């Protein structure tokens, strides 16, 4: 059942509940359909609240406590989430374009198919989060901790991931084109051969335990540059690719020679 009260009445009731320590009733948990545009929800306890499909553009959720909440399909355009805690929260299909979430906690959250274009999320935590097919183009994610997160199919084109912790992440199908990864940690990343590394900035990275990742990134960028030198090099590249996967497949080379 969707809430019938206005956003102002709901926020007032939420603040009173926080002051008295009373648990939230059903009328304060099911908030679907409420318009929280420009609303101040900072510092509130929103544990388990359902904001799915809500209009929340430019709302302030700074330092809010939102574990196990539901923001599926919500519009959080230019919302402020600094320092908020979202452990186990879902943002499936949510629009967080240009939001600010500095030092926010997104551990074990589900961001599947969310739009985080140009979001500012420096120092945020995404440990064990589901970040599949998310639009992080041009996002600022410096020093973010994404340890063991599932990043399959996510687009980081021109994003800033300097000093980010990407250890043990699944990066199958991830787009790192022109992404700044300076100083990031890539140890034990999974499916790195299925990611797009063209133009990625990998300076200042300690590749201890990830030397194969380093070599793969260098090889991919070398082959891309070589292929685009001229028509002749393009033809040579495709022949090389067909016969031996550019020297990386002994099986294919053996079949070609047999």
In short:
By secondary structure, the protein is mainly alpha-helical.
Describe it for me?
The chain is mostly helical. Helices cover 22% and strands 0% of the residues. It is built from five helices and no strands. It has helices spanning 7-20, 26-29, 211-227, 231-244, 250-257. It is elongated, with a radius of gyration of 22 Å. The model has no long low-confidence stretch (mean pLDDT 93).
The poorly predicted ranges are: none
The proportion of residues forming helix, as a percent range, comes to 10-25%
Content of β-strand: under 5%
Overall radius of gyration: 22 Å
Helix-strand pattern? HHHHH
- What is the number of strand segments? 0
The chain-level structural class is mainly alpha
Through-space gap between termini:
69 Å
- Average pLDDT number: 93
Layout of helices and strands, plus pairs?
Layout: H1 7-20, H2 26-29, H3 211-227, H4 231-244, H5 250-257
Quick tags:
258 residues; mainly alpha; elongated
């Amino acid at each position: 059942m969707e809430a019938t009260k206005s956003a102002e009445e709901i926020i007032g009731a939420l603040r009173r509940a926080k002051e008295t320590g009373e648990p939230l009733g059903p009328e304060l948990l099911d908030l679907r359909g409420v318009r929280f545009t420009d609303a101040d929800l900072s510092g509130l306890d929103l544990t388990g609240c359902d904001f799915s499909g809500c209009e929340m553009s430019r709302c302030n959720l700074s330092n809010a406590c939102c574990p196990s909440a539901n923001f599926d399909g919500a519009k959080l355009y230019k919302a402020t989430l600094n320092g908020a805690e979202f452990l186990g929260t879902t943002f499936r299909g949510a629009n967080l374009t240009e939001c600010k979430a500095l030092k926010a906690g997104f551990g074990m959250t589900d961001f599947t198919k969310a739009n985080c274009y140009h979001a500012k999320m420096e120092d945020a935590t995404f440990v064990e989060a589901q970040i599949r097919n998310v639009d992080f183009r041009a996002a600022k994610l410096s020093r973010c901790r994404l340890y063991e997160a599932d990043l399959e199919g996510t687009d980081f084109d021109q994003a800033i991931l300097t000093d980010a912790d990407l250890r043990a992440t699944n990066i199958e199908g991830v787009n790192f084109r022109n992404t700044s990864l300076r100083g990031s940690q890539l140890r034990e990343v999974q499916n790195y051969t299925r990611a797009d590394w063209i133009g990625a900035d990998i300076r200042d990275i300690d590749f201890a335990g990830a030397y194969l990742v380093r070599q793969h990134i260098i090889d991919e960028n070398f082959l891309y540059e070589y292929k685009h030198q001229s028509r002749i090099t393009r033809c040579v590249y495709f022949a090389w690719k067909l016969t031996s996967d550019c020297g990386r497949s002994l099986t294919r080379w053996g079949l070609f020679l047999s």
